[in-house]
Amino acid sequence: MSALLELLRKTSALSGGNAAFIEDLYERYLQDPGSIDEAWRKRFDSLVLVKESANEPADIAHGPVRSNFARLAKEKRPASKFATERISPAGAEKQAAVLRLINAWRVRSHQHANLDPLLLREREEVPDTDPAYHRLADSDMDTIFNTGSLFAPDRMPLREILNLVAEVYGGNVGSEYMHITDTRQKRWIQKRVEGYRAKPELDTNDQRWLLTLLTAAEGLEKYLHTRYVGQKRFSLEGGESLIPLLDELVQRAGTNGIKEIVIGMAHRGRLNVLTNILGKPPSELFMEFEGKKSPDQFRSMGDVKYHMGFSTDIETPGGFSHVVLGFNPSHLEIINPVIEGSVRARQQRREDRTGDEVLPVQIHGDSAFAGQGVVMETLQMSQARGYSTGGTVHIVVNNQIGFTTSHPMDTRSTLYCTDVGKMVQAPIFHVNGDDPEAVLFVTRLALDFRQKFHKDVIIDLVCYRRHGHNEADEPAVTQPHMYQKIRRLPTTRSNYSDKLIAAGAITPEESLSMVEDYRSSLEQNSVVARPTLQDLEYPYHVNWEPYRHTGWEHPVETTISDERLFKLSDSLLVLPEEFELHPRVAKIMQERHKMASGDQLVDWGFGETLAYASLVDEGHPIRLSGQDCGRGTFFHRHAVLHNQLNGESYIPLQHLSEDQANFLVIDSLLSEEAVLGFEYGYATAEPNALTIWEAQFGDFANGAQVVIDQFISAGGSKWGLYCGLTMFLPHGYEGQGAEHSSARLERYLQLCAEQNIQVCVPTTPAQVFHMLRRQMLRPMRKPLVVMTPKSLLRHRLATSPLEDFTSGSFQPVMKEVDDLDPAEVERIIVCSGKVYYELLEARRTRGMRDVAIIRLEQLYPFPRGQFDQVINQYPNVKTLIWCQEEPQNQGAWDQIKHRFHTQLDLGKKLYYVGRQASAAPAVGYYPLHVEQQETLIDEALTGRINPSMNRRTPEE
What we know:
Shape: elongated
Protein name: 2-oxoglutarate dehydrogenase E1 component
EC number: 1.2.4.2
Number of strands: 26
Function: E1 component of the 2-oxoglutarate dehydrogenase (OGDH) complex which catalyzes the decarboxylation of 2-oxoglutarate, the first step in the conversion of 2-oxoglutarate to succinyl-CoA and CO(2).
InterPro entries: 2-oxogl_dehyd_N (IPR032106), 2oxoglutarate_DH_E1 (IPR011603), DH_E1 (IPR001017), KGD_C_sf (IPR042179), ODO-1/KGD_C (IPR031717), THDP-binding (IPR029061), Transketolase-like_Pyr-bd (IPR005475)
Number of domains: 4
CATH topology of the largest domain: Rossmann fold
Pfam family, one: 2-oxogl_dehyd_N
């Protein structure tokens, strides 16, 4: 404490009369250094003691500080610039109260800001913002106080301080940012909102343009409402300020050097954004309302008009910006991770590592933002390695009602629908949608924050919905009070027009002319948005033409030469100096040395790694993500090695050669839905990379079923999108119970149609090698779903010799491996996956020569020609058996049995062998699992199928 006292003696401002004031400052400094004036912060920064024993900062006890002020005051040192006059203890207490009052306005005033255009609820009283709460009276209003860290003159009367904070924090903008722990970010926001008084700088031309945009937003909805009566359009009425918000966002982003903006948005207001922001020709929109299609849409089945995407190039003061609105199904908020993945791919294509050139924008609904878990998952990715996109601008179109029949208080447990954003310390700016100028202010503020700090930021556009959930809905049935107010409420455009007329910025005639001009443009089918650029030479455009009009049977060479194989193997097995592996990993690497030399057959992990090495060596980037995919859930991959000496990691696939493509492997956060959505979005924007998502267990993909149903299986059919995403789903019955046996193969096969996806079940390392190379090298981009193994990763028979990598190709059908006489074969077992090896070993043990076992390695598209060719090699076969581990109502059976009709036409009988139908994928008792497995193996080999088990199902 003596060192502290010596510092205090040298500081004349720290007089006894200022004790309460300074102690309050010091307490605030300890909690948040950025909350006090910079000069005081530097002074307190200097009060750091140094321990004699170590060069480490020591804590300063601040409790005894006040007791020393009186003694220090007796020294009567001259005043410094920090105190122009001596403050009495009572005055110091008042000063401290003023600073607490300012802080209260910063922290809590958003709760009673004027945010609701409908005035449905009384503005909340917040005691902290009342001077009386801090023992400040009317008699103090004209007293001059220090303003502390407020961005204002150093000293002001309390009355003016109150007016300032009320104007900044209690008007039509409610700012939430004091939850942020980074002082720089808080001070930056304070400077912007307090320095500009939460108002934009607009001249008359700016105001006229703002009115023009509101005219367009309102005009389109009214036009559609009268021309297409009763049709769903999910109008923007009540939230028209979204259009000037997006216009300002695009223009300011372009000015700041952003070259691409990718927008994710649900259906409400989508048609308005397409027409008035992106410049979609009204004629195309009208054709969609009339059930017609433009010629370029015939490559897909199409979708409802308010799910369709669009892209355009918009001119801005900083040059053109390529603006994309992503295709989106009705599943709320599921577009969020898809957009982030697309943005990440675009940023990597530009080598935009910080997100300065590509901006993601997400437009949410209020209740969906609060209620959908994928929002939290996507926010959690925002700063995670491998998923960050440099910050997203989130816009919540807050209609203040989740669904027409719901009560707003039933939609969440939080104060605001945006509270989930606080988990990533995103600033949140609530703004009254009926004040378009305030909307422009927070738009500029939000974008500039994102560009400055590369973090997510949220705009809560508080508005209302003039109609029900859709235009055929009658909202007053369940929300009578709200809709009585809405029907009496002038529109946002009307209010703003009246304001400008009153200010002399426009005349009533000019306002009316804007309305008429916009309607005339619609009737003439003229583009009503800002001018867009046509036939632009876009340097980062992806040319999808090579991937169109290609078939499954397109020939592709997937082998590599012996020389390349040995070279890649050597590079994969070189470690840095002083790199010590864990003993178990060291053993695996020793075995891989033997595999590379041909002394040991190649296992699954090394075969997969060779596929990656060959592709990146040829210039094809690879992105592999999932939970624990660096090591591999089942301890097989070890793409990332860890030094046991210092914990540093090393990825051999990143060190093959100087000119290789990038290999990125990411252990994802514990999410399926958002991460799979992200990888899908990445793959749709980057066809030149092999993008893989691996489930920790195959059944975990259940958590991402919306992504699978709405995007992966149907995106090509609905929207004409190409996507080469690969999914690894560990699958196989090893007695691990209902949750960790089945990847739900039946669900993927049920989704198969129109050549939309590939479903494969490879059983050898060479097969997975050729399959992955085929996926990348074949000029076709369709999703690949792979049932990957668990026990086969180390099965002694699930191996491949080196020559299988330097010759051959992926085989959709794998023929019998033993040397059987075709004439002696009377029965053929057809199967997929792990059960093959159990059948093979059991047949060999029994010495059976009359049963052949055929593997289907590609279940869809079904390889009919190859399948029939293999079966027809056996002239005396009368019985086909489909054998599977899964229950009868699951697995491939119901989706595969009709594929055998050509063989049935030749007189063969088809039987099912497997587990009985079951509600759960597998039993939970290991002994029962073993009994079931032995039974189905025996029945398949002998043909002695127990009728009481209800598994004999001949297909005539």
